[in-house]
Amino acid sequence: MKSFLLPASLLLTLNLFAQTEKILEDPSVNWAAEIELTLPADPLEFSANEDRSAALAALKLTAEYEPALHSYINHSLNAKLWDIAENGDWEAYSNAELTRPLDTEELLQIISGPDTIVTFDQTTYEEKVQIAWNMRPFPHEARFVRVRQLLTYNDEKAQFKVYTLAIAPFTRSEAPRFWLKVPQTEVFQPDTLINRPDVTWAVRYITNDASPRVSDFQVVKDETGPVMDRFFDRIMADTAVLLYGTLLDEAPLSSDQRACLFSCTDSVSTFDPETNLEHVEVFHTELMPDQIIDLQLIEEFYWQDEDGLLYTRLIAVAPRYKFYYQEGQWHPRVGFCRRCDE
What's this model's pTM, rounded to 2 decimal places? Predict the structure, then answer.
């Protein structure tokens, strides 16, 4: 029997279910929550100004050369989003929950920057002030995109998946001025997709500071209880569920490594040359679900020009916990990695 955990806002719930009803009704989806990520928008600009939000690697960039500028342009995902907004190709909203739609006039007021032009009439000796609309005032100024996604969990496979619901240009100094509802796309094979000439932009992200915190999950379907508890139950009990040491490891953990991952006793031996005595210190480490603070994600984004579609897929998740390197000081450390594309 299915059970659903309703968010506090009924309006948000109704809107979310209108977008993702088929996903949530899928019996293989046992848990789902909305998350938001802040990601760099331009792979080339990011390479010169690295940010802690996420690591970024360009998989494919089809350059557009601008002779007047003697440079390449439009590598930012925000330039594409501005085109989508100007053309009205996707539905536009004023909020990430997609509950407050923007009509065409409202959106144009947002994405068009008013300016004034002063002209002097030599016949009448009068100044004339005209309002001019400078389209696309700042795609390049919005260095990030804010992405709202649905994170789902399949308990049988112990695997996560993401669906991108909405996206917005984001300056990080102010809230997004508008959000675009991302059309749903079919399941795709990345090797086939990236070889298509109309796929002109493809990147891989590894979230750092942008990693979604467990405490921030906005749960919209719950058949598992706390998802980290259930996920750990599955991977600790079933060695057929492959785990990796890091997000980029090619070989899964061995049985010994896997056993020590969750509970391990080890010792460190030191020798004192003055006393000729050996000192052995025994310590115990364990990794439990209540220690997990966030999920580091590997995601790939592909832009298809022909249909103006954005494809996304989740490659892997890595639960992270607090690692204390000195008293009171810690940083998030990856415990293990679970691939989502196997």
Answer: 0.81
> SS3 of 242, please?
coil
- Please tell me the distance from the alpha carbon of residue 105 to that of residue 291, in angstroms, as a whole number: 48
- pLDDT given at position 117: 59
Tell me the pLDDT tens digit for each residue of 225-239.
999 999 999 999 999
**E strand or H helix at 115, and its extent?**
strand 112-121
Q: E strand or H helix at 16, and its extent?
A: helix 10-25
Number of H helices, E strands in the chain: 7, 18
Dump pLDDT digits (tens) for 241-284: 999 998 777 899 998 888 888 887 666 677 777 777 777 666 56
Please tell me whether residue 289 adopts helix, strand or coil conformation. Answer: helix
How far is residue 167's CA from residue 181's CA, in Å, rounded to a whole number?
Answer: 7
Hey, how many other C-beta atoms are within 10 angstroms of the C-beta on 218?
19
What the block records as the tokens of 1 is: 């029997």
Tokens read off for 97: 């929950």
Q: Scanning the structure block, which residue is given the tokens 């019996």?
A: 27
Which residue in this structure is represented by tokens 């599955």?
234
Say if residues 209 and 53 touch (Cβ distance below 8 Å). Answer: yes
For residues 3 and 165, what is the distance between their CA atoms, to the nearest angstrom? Answer: 23
For residue 260, what is the enclosing H or E element? helix 255-262
DSSP class per residue in 108-173 = HHHHEEEEEEEEEETTTTEEEEEEEEEESS-TTT--EEEEEEEEEEETTTTEEEEEEEEEEEE-SS
Between 104-111 and 77-87, two packed helices, what is the crossing angle to 10 degrees?
140
CA dihedral for 181, 183, 187, 192, sign (positive or negative): negative
Strand-by-strand arrangement of the 144-154 sheet: 92-93, 179-181, 159-170, 144-154, 31-40, 218-222
Length of the chain: 342
* Contact call for residues 206 and 55 (beta carbons, < 8 A): yes
